[in-house]
């Protein structure tokens, strides 16, 4: 009897996201220098680094909100090809609306604070062209339910909700269209520890159930440790070290990573 | 050639109150607006002897379109006899020498605030609507620069968010006036604060409609035979006000847009909003010879 062992999907698959030599300057400040990253389907890539290390800028570029000075970015999706940075405004908006979800640190960036929570999620579907009220309503409440948002607050505006709840609305909005890529920019920063744990739990659950490809940016190593499969450490706009999460945390090679891993209050 | 040969001699007054260059500018912007139905065209709104917000936009368009043979009708919320309508009508007649009328059928130019007459307009008639706020995206996008970009991109998804919010909050679409409508399948416009009842009248209408906002300095237009479709969800149909079975307590007219008149005992009676149509109905009942035009609505139903 022969046993064939199939290689793990991760090994066989082509990367979903491939960013190459991305650079961005703001005036004299080099925000991101020559950063390359690959993310495989179903994988979670964590990006750590101190404030100003360029990790959020990089994420914004992955969300096509900003155009880099140089570099290329491709997503392995049937509807797009070539360098996404070259897309025009329409194609960009459609791609961001349908295939990329993002959760910002600051809910004000991602949500309409005075509209209802379900409306915020529905907006995403509306931009993608859904025009049936019943479907909008159902899909919005489904997405909110998956994000563990209490359904009795379905129509409360985010302005009336707690920080944790606002992040859940953002998350529901991001996953409403089942995006290929979910970007998380410091999703739990500013929440207290217990709420942070709950939100992380939701994210982890979501990752397990749906196998969404995620890129998560945080300065909080705990968050990265909980979620990420692979980790990229950034400093002053450059990647100083990259590798499997365990590897980075157990055996950091670069002096800055060592300092980061060992820094505890 | 000298400057004197190119310019007109000085005159103590200009025909139609506005000076020639102002009228030329507004004419150009009207042509542009007609060329791109529903698209807002900025124009240099002039001072007229009336406060901003009282129909200065409509008045400027009317003054531009006037000539001594144009018969003009002015409507304020359906009525020809309100102070505002009477003043504008008298002003238009005084500065242009044009005859005036109250009858929709006789009018060549109709300036209106908040209503479209109940009788169908013809190819040779022009309707000028006064618009307080020409930007349909303002409730969902307060930044006008971004709103303009959204118009350019036909990025109107958020307009439905507004309707979604209303249905969620109140169980139905609450937008009573200025119902956002898609013109010619391209631009979303606000059809000035006409009630929902009047929006279907603009769809594939024979007449030219020009909408002008004096304070906001924008002109947009619905040319004849242009599609005007109110924004709706696929599964929530557009509904006009339930005025189809109301009867006017003064004229007995039935099946038209009514004004509600609250009574002392808490009940309410109704009076037809298009005042001249009511007057004609009364005259007919009294046996006077009156001519009625074809109406948009028959028995409270929009006739196709």
Keywords, please?
heterodimer, A: 265 residues, alpha/beta, Rossmann fold, 2 domains, six-stranded mixed sheet, 11 helices, 9 strands, globular, B: alpha/beta, three-stranded antiparallel sheet, 17% strand
What does the model show?
The complex is a heterodimer of chains A (265) and B (304). Chain A has 265 residues and is α/β, with parallel strands linked by helices. Chain A folds into two domains: 1-87 and 180-265, P-loop containing nucleotide triphosphate hydrolases (Rossmann fold), CATH 3.40.50; 100-178, no CATH class. Chain A contains eleven helices and nine strands. In chain A, helix 5 packs across helix 6 and helix 5 runs parallel beside helix 7 (163-175). The longest helix of chain A is centred in the last third of the chain and has 18 residues, at 193-210. Chain B has two domains: 20-136 and 178-226, Bacterial phosphonate metabolism protein PhnH (Rossmann fold); 240-287 and 294-304, no CATH class. Chain B is 27% helix and 17% strand. In chain B, the strands form four sheets. A six-stranded mixed sheet of chain B has the order 1-8-7-4-3-2, with helices on one face. A three-stranded antiparallel sheet of chain B has the order 6-5-9. In chain B, helix 2 (20-35) packs across helix 3. Chain B starts with a helix and ends with a strand. Classes of the chains: A alpha/beta (265), B alpha/beta (304).
């Amino acid at each position: 009897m022969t046993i064939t062992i199939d290689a793990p999907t991760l090994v066989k698959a082509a990367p979903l996201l491939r960013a190459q030599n991305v650079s961005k300057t703001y005036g004299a400040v080099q925000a991101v220098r020559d950063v390359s990253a690959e993310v495989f389907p179903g994988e979670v890539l964590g990006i750590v680094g101190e404030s100003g290390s360029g990790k959020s800028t990089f994420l914004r570029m992955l969300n096509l909100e900003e155009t880099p000075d140089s570099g290329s970015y491709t997503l392995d999706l049937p509807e797009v090809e070539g360098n996404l940075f070259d897309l025009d405004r329409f194609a960009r908006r459609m791609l961001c609306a349908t295939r990329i979800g993002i959760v910002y640190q600051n809910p004000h960036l991602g949500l309409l604070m005075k509209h209802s929570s379900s409306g915020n999620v529905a907006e995403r579907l509306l931009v993608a062209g859904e025009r049936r009220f019943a479907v909008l309503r159902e899909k919005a409440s489904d997405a909110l339910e998956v994000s563990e948002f209490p359904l009795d607050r379905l129509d409360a505006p985010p302005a009336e909700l707690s920080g944790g709840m606002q992040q859940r609305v953002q998350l529901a909005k991001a996953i409403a269209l089942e995006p290929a890529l979910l970007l998380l920019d410091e999703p739990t920063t500013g929440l207290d520890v217990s709420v942070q744990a709950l939100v992380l739990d939701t994210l982890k659950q979501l990752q397990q159930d749906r196998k969404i490809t995620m890129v998560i940016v945080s300065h909080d190593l705990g968050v990265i440790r909980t979620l990420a499969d692979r980790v990229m450490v950034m400093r002053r706009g450059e990647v100083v070290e990259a590798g499997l999460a365990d590897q980075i945390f157990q055996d950091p090679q670069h002096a800055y990573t060592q300092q980061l891993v060992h820094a505890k209050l | 050639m000298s400057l004197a040969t190119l310019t007109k001699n000085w005159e103590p007054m200009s025909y139609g109150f506005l000076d020639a260059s102002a009228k030329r500018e507004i004419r150009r912007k009207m042509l542009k607006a007609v060329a791109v139905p529903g698209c807002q065209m900025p124009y240099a709104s002039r001072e007229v002897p009336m406060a901003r917000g009282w129909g200065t936009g409509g008045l400027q368009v009317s003054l531009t379109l006037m000539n001594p043979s144009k018969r003009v009708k002015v409507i304020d919320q359906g009525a020809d006899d309100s102070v505002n309508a009477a003043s504008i009508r008298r002003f238009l007649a005084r500065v242009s020498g044009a005859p005036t009328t109250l009858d929709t059928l006789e009018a060549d130019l109709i300036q209106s605030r908040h209503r479209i007459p109940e009788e169908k307009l013809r190819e040779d008639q022009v309707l000028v609507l006064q618009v307080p706020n020409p930007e349909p995206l303002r409730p969902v996008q307060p930044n006008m620069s971004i709103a303009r970009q959204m118009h350019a991109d036909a990025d109107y998804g958020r307009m439905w968010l507004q309707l979604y919010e209303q249905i969620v909050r109140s169980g139905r679409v609450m937008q009573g006036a200025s119902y956002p409508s898609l013109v010619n399948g391209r631009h979303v416009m606000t059809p000035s604060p006409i009630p929902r009842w009047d929006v279907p009248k603009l769809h594939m209408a024979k007449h030219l409609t020009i909408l002008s906002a004096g304070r906001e300095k924008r002109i947009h237009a619905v040319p004849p035979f242009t599609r005007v479709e109110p924004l709706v969800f696929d599964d929530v149909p557009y509904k006009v006000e339930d005025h189809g079975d109301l009867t006017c307590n003064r004229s007995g007219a039935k099946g038209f847009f009514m004004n509600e008149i609250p009574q002392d005992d808490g009940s309410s009676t109704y009076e037809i909003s298009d005042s001249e149509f009511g007057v004609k109905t009364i005259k007919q009942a009294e046996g006077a010879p009156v001519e009625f035009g074809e109406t948009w609505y028959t028995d409270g139903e929009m006739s196709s």
